[in-house]
Amino acid sequence: MSTENQKTLETYERYANNYLKQDTSSADKAKQDMLEKCLNNIPKDAKIFEVGSASGKDAEFFRSLGYKKITVSDVPNHFLIELKNKGFSPIKFDLIKDDFSDSYDFIYCWAVLMHFTKEEAKNAIRKMYNALNNDGRILMCIKTDKNKKKNG
Fold first, then answer.
1. What pTM, to 2 d.p., does this model score?
2. Which end of the chain lies in a sparser environment, N or C, as judged by fewer CB atoms within 10 Å?
3. Domains of the chain, residue spans
4. Looking at the predicted structure, is the pLDDT value of residue 43 above 60?
């Protein structure tokens, strides 16, 4: 694990309560519309895995659409407690260190890979791809720093 990613995890662990207080809104309408389109033709009994669930607002949206087999995950304990308080059974899952123990119909990874080095992100994408069922889908949001110089 890169030093940068380790610092990110430590920061989220330390300031998770502040993040959770700020993250009280549900997923915005444009994001919800995009999620619904990505889930088109994915049956309600599909297995969904969310990497880095944080407050659980996106998992709650999946649940509101009728999906019940949602695996929520994160690394900071504060997020895991929040997810449990919302009725989920969260798992501690670090996409860099951990392997998927099952296969999934939909893997959702929003604003996680931006904390990884390029090599960590490549490996993470490979892991997610390998954890998909036939015809499974991955939805990723990869944010970058506009001011950061791109290397390769």
1. 0.81
2. C
3. 3-141
4. yes
